[in-house]
Amino acid sequence: MSCCNALRTYSRFLRPTQLMTVLNRSFGQPVAQTHPHILKQGEVTPFVTKEEYSQRRHNVFNLALKQFEGSKNVKDHIMIFPSAYKMFMTIPIPYPFRQNTDFSYLSGFQEADSVLVLHNSQKLPVSHRTLSPETGMTSVLFVPRKDTHAELWDGERSGPHGAVEITGVDGAYNSEDLGQFLQQYSEHHANYVIWYDIEGNVHPQLHRAGIEDFILQGRQKCVETTTRSVHRIRVIKSPAEVQLMQKSVDIASESLEEVMKFSYPGVNEAYLEAKMEFECVLRDAQMLAYPPVVAGGNRGNTIHYTRNNQIVPGGDMILMDAGCEYHGFTSDLTRTWPVSGRFSPVQRRLYEMVLRIQLKVISLCTPEFTLEQVYVYMLHLLGEELVSLGLMKKKDKSSNHAEEIRKFYPHHIGHYLGMDVHDTPTMSRHTKLKPGMIIAIEPGVYIPADRTSVPEQYRGIAIRIEDNLLITESQPIVLSDKCVKDPDHIEEMMAAAKS
């Protein structure tokens, strides 16, 4: 449906004055009436409605209140969430903008230099409060002022009226009014809790422009971080978020297979990175989720190798760790394959070992276990496999068996996944897995070229297989099961691509 046709359809539900408002309104991000190919009516961002964003805000605020249940001294709470700010390569060339995750999760607003404030004050002037009957909470956005000159150069801004229309918050004001608002809040309250990510220093300019003074005024009794409360809510994905994650993983899975089919002996690692980005964007991803690892041969033993500027000769394998971001949700996959299209006997032996371990480990990702327990189990399996291949000695009293295993696998088995690649980092890996969590599981084996303690034919090989899982009440759902990883299927796919 064209934009004009969408507006005609939308106009049937509007009075003439409302229609003129829509036609004349400019927004700083896609909305249903300007981008009907991306958003449906009622959605703030794809799949996520105003109601869901509102529920997120209430959930986070209620969780904060529960931490002070029974406290007679503190009844007022104010939560402050700054947006990200524009960063520049050199004036006036900006880096691609990515919104601060917690701010985006709670508002869906995509403009820089903004602040979301949640509070339960009944002492502020009426213009600053619209208390929800559910929680007594008011949500307020402070956003960049409409500015014709700035918008000429940098694109449209939504302004306060547009911000309310897009997000469904209770009210919105210009960003420069934040300091005055906080000063007014301070004048009307004696004891209150400020919830703010001080350590994160998310937006230094806005921090200095009013938030810092507000915190330092000394009348409040307590300053708490927002991150733990938000992460406890964010770690469990809603049905809409699961849809977004599945789409992000599908894009990355299909794109990674295209990269595998495109590879050939003598290929430059940079070409494979470019191919991955091209295929992801072609499938509607906004960007890669992180600088990908594209490591040929021994370079795969550098866990975060991202130079991606070497030639991969025939006989080597490629370890590629890559994902994409789809409307704020990230995927994170790793596959390892022979650049020639066929595994050598030694490569296949090690690859099949890692795949066996991964399949066993995935079956353990249920609500009965924690990521830490899964990691310990993986180390046990890896140790048994390495001993059977003659790459390690059997466990005895004269050696630290666990330490020896970690020389072949120096990182953790997995992490939470969602809006960020390493999502909700304040959530402990000792937490029991719960339905709705999404995790990345990535066993592997790393044998650097200078590891003289192993037979020569194994040296210089690195293998990692990483999949994205949705935790359920029973067995996990492998969101990335479409991305080929069986060694026979890899060889068949690559052979077919070359024929």
How would you briefly describe this protein structure?
With 499 residues, the chain is an alpha+beta fold. Helix content is 37%, strand content 18%. It has a 6-stranded mixed sheet with strand order 8-7-6-3-9-10, with helices on both faces. A 4-stranded antiparallel sheet has the order 19-20-23-24, covered by helices on one side. Strands 12-16-17 form a 3-stranded antiparallel sheet.
Plain-language structure description:
The protein is an alpha+beta fold. The chain folds into 3 domains: 1-41, no CATH class; 44-234, Creatine Amidinohydrolase, Chain A, domain 1, CATH 3.40.350; 239-498, Alpha-Beta Complex (Creatine Amidinohydrolase), CATH 3.90.230. 37% of the residues lie in helices and 18% in strands. It is built from 15 helices and 24 strands. The chain has helices spanning 3-11, 16-24, 50-66, 101-107, 148-154, 159-167, 178-188, 204-216, 227-234, 239-262, 269-282, 345-363, 371-388, 401-408, 487-498, and strands spanning 43-45, 48-49, 76-82, 88-90, 93-94, 115-119, 138-143, 171-174, 192-196, 222-224, 267-268, 287-288, 293-296, 311-312, 317-322, 324-326, 329-330, 333-338, 414-416, 438-441, 444-447, 461-464, 467-470, 477-478. Strands 8-7-6-3-9-10 form a 6-stranded mixed β-sheet, sandwiched between helices. α7 (178-188) runs parallel beside α8. The longest helix has 24 residues, at 239-262. The radius of gyration is 26 Å and the shape is globular. 42% of the residues are buried.
